User: Fold these one by one.
Assistant:
Number 1:
Amino acid sequence: MNIHPETGKDGESYNQGRGYEQLKQFVESELEVKCLVASPEGCSEKEVEFMDKMKAKGVEDIEKQHTRLQGMAGKSMTPDLKKWLFQRINILAQLKDQ
């Protein structure tokens, strides 16, 4: 069993919706294995292109884009757009941590 250093063996309580779409969104945004900047073999071509584009920009631009996209996360959009939004947020968060 893996124990997370911040949440312990019990993890965090899930306090969100119980409908299919809410559970699916939670899994995709919180649990799904994501594209890793340090090891992009598992990334789509679209993710790699975005990663390369953002790497060429400065830290300030990366932070601005991250903040902008996080502000969009709660808005209504198609599932495909929402997935792409979270993929970009994931990449930008990793770039910020580098």
Number 2:
Amino acid sequence: MTLRSPLLDEFRANKSRRWELRDIFGFVVEFSGDQHGSRFIQRKLENASSDDKQIVFDEIVPDHALQLIQDVFGNYVIQKLFEHGTQAQKTALATTMETHILSLSMQMYGCRVVQKAVEYILPEQQISLVNELEPHVLKCVKDANGNHVIQKLIERVAPERLSFVNSFRGSVYELASHPYGCRVLQRCFEHLTDEQTRPLLDELHKYIINLMQDQFGNYVVQFILEYGKPHDRALVISKLRGQMLHMSRHKFASNVCEKALVTADSESRRLLIEEIMTPKHDGVSPLVTMMKDQFANYVLQRAVVVAESPQKEELINKVRPQLVTMRRYSNAYSKHLTSSP
């Protein structure tokens, strides 16, 4: 435990005094690393005069910046400097981070500062930051902290500057089925150009059936159904055809089935619901199976809601007689369907 200065001790003890930034000059670094001191500096920086800001800045940068960036309380002071500093201060602060971007991005507090820096630095500095991470981008994507930095870069940096996205090719399945990779892929589809995302999407389409059933991959497939181009959405829905009963009974794929029913065009939706209503060759009704299933019953409820007339009436007429039988099972799931329109 490092010893506190008498000034910080007094600051922590004397709440009645009206403290100003200038009262702590000479002790800014120590205060930044203290929970109460850090909060005080953050609050004061928002409305500080440019002279006071400069003094705070000079005490931290360059000698103590890296230490505070990685500190549980200090990182917030650094973030405020990015938010409220002059462009020259932001540039100088970001310069202290150069050559350390990878280690900072993978550090719990450092990753927050790197994200903040990305928002406030000039494009030239953004590029040097990207260049530092480029050789290690897959490592960052799979890191609990680093993935947030990669997402922020994809959101904030001009797409043509993000050549690292090319290194995702060949790893799309691995990324889509990864807890952090799946988020990074979604950001790519959201912010990048068609030219950059097309190879990734084409690769993804090869694995759609597997990804629907994956605990992380299903989110990527749902994302395409909700925000993708009509062509990509249609491709996903075509993979569901003939698989509705099987997929709707799967813990993760059932979510994709619901999303497909909501996002499909009228004709595709009609065909998916038709499939649910049509008895199999062995006479087994998918509908009855779905009503009894803990996941599929939600897909069936969704179908009842989104179906269009006259199919809607037909579906409700097929479900209703089964509800009587279902009550004998006293199945908790049937009560959801009983309340459907």
Number 3:
Amino acid sequence: MKKHYLIGLFLVFIIVCAFTKPETPMSVVIDNALKQAEMQSLLLAKEMETVPDSLPRTIDKNGKLIMSGSKWWCSGFFPGTLWYLYENSSNKELKRYASLFTNRINKEQYNKGTHDLGFMLYCSYGNALRITGIDSCKSVLINGSKSLSTRFNPTIGSIQSWGSNQKWRFPVIIDNMMNLEMLMWASKETGDNRFKEIAETHANTCIANHFRKDYSTFHVVSYIPETGAVQVKCTAQGYSDESAWARGQAWGLYGYGMMYRETGNKRYLDQANHIADFILNHPNLPKDKIPYWDFNAPDIPNALRDASAASIIASSLIELSQFVGEPRKSQYIAVAEKQLRTLASPEYTAKKGSNGCFILKHGVGHLPGDSEVDVPLTYGDYYYVEALMRYKKMILNK
């Protein structure tokens, strides 16, 4: 009887194995994804090479490529993507294109009319400096940091994001956390502590005013310049003022993880972990870990997903996993792996030559404004490739 029982168990095991497809190793997923990203990015670079002073942005509803000038906040993401891909493969053609498109942003180092100089310059010139050591990049980044610093208001303790209008006198958006990394670099490079002080003060003010008790974040907090008092807390791109706009949660997660890396201040790591808890434990986070465009979108589970938010979260979780112990470490890596597997699948990764030659499909830029909805987004591609590279370096190549 016992013999027949064991034989039965063995047969069940054989049947299960026969019908269970083994999961592709992450090393293969990462390598294939990077090859696909390189192929698409080279096609896009070749298409744009002869269009002067332009950078890729997205596609319209008919699949036509939409470009931008260097002043658009996303201008640094495509050259930054090319630099990451060059770092991975050492393909000299990638390096040539990365240099070409990076140089198209050069004049923005003197732009004092935007808070997005970190996105624009540090993702492009910052990666160029890190990977190639080209010394001329330093002056661009220092000048950009000086320009960004002019938007800091010491009474409020924040860098102004957008211009004032009838609704907002001194608006600060959570996205602005991402521009602090360039200031931290500039402080170390020049020895000028003011850059660091501005970055830390801005981060501290955001902790005080941007986050709710559950560590979800308001998208916009506007202040009264004369007193520093909060004027209003609301959203511009989320579903509602009280909702949790997915990419906003991602910006906060990434920003405070970065600030911990740069300062060693445990307050920032605690903040990042709290934000991660909100995201990863949210009942509306899908099983494949690609968030809906807003965690409180009214049409869940039929709401649009945002691949760009997933890419930012994955990149941040991979880095955060290096700063924490168990069980957080394993949880962060597992979620990032799930996100990367999903993004690397045909559901989100475009076929060769399709999708305007962008890498990922299904990004949501500004749904309430009916702008860049369910399309590729250049920043989604950038943080996706960054996440792939971080996984390869931090996890696979230990």
